[in-house]
Amino acid sequence: MSNILITGTGKGLGKAMKEELEKQGHSIIDYNLEDGNDVRTTKDLIMWENIDVLINNAGVNLIDWLENFEEDMWDKVMDTNAKGIYMMTKACLPSLIRRKGTILNIVSNAAHMPMTCSLCLQCIQRCSPYNDFAVGS
Questions:
Q1: pLDDT per residue over 76-111, tens digit each?
Q2: Cα separation of 59 and 77, whole Å?
Q3: Which CATH number fits the domain that encloses residue 53?
Q4: Three-class SS string for the chain?
Q5: In the predicted structure, residue 20 carries a pLDDT above the cut 90
Q6: Which has more confidence, 121 or 87?
Q7: Rounded to an integer, what distance in angstroms lies between the CA atom of residue 51 and that of residue 20?
Q8: Radius of gyration of the chain (CA)
C-alpha cells in the first residue's frame, strides 16, 4: 500500500478521499489547517521522506464584492491556492522522485498554468504520472 499525503483533509473532498483511501489500506498523512498544518509553510514536511503520492487538494475561496476585498484576503487565496501547491510539491518532490511517486493536483485556475507545464515535464522525466485537474475550467 502507498503512503499518501493529502492536503485539505479537514472537510469536503479531501476528507472523503482520506476516508476512502484509508479503507483501502493506504497510509494517509493528513495535512490540513485544522490540525495546524498550513500549505503555505511546509516546515514540518522534512520528517516525511517516504511519500508515494501527493494529493494537492487544499483550497480557499473567499467570495465578496471587489470593493470589499482587502489585499490580505487576496493574499490568502493566492497563497493557499497557488503558492501552497508549489510549496507542498517542492517539499515532497525528492521523495516522489526517489520512489517513482505520483502527484494529483486538484487546483484552482490560479495554480493551473504556472505549475502544469513545468511540473508535468519534470514528472514525465523523473517520476510516474502527473495529474492536474483545474476546478472550474
A1: 888 777 788 888 888 888 888 888 888 888 866 655
A2: 8
A3: 3.40.50.720
A4: CCEEEEECCCCHHHHHHHHHHHHCCCEEEEECHHHCCECCECHHHHHCCCCCEEEECCCCCCCCCHHHCCHHHHHHHHHHHHHHHHHHHHHHHHHHHHCCCEEEEEECHHHHHHHHHHHHHHHHHHCCCEEEEECCC
A5: yes
A6: 87
A7: 18
A8: 15
Region 54-77 average pLDDT: 83
Residue 23 predicted with pLDDT over 70:
yes
Range of the domain at 57: 3-134
Number of domains in the chain: 1
C-alpha cell at 46: 522534512
Short-list 56, 55, 63, CA closest to 3: 55
pTM: 0.77
Q: Measured between alpha carbons, how far is 127 from 89 in angstroms, rounded to an integer?
A: 13
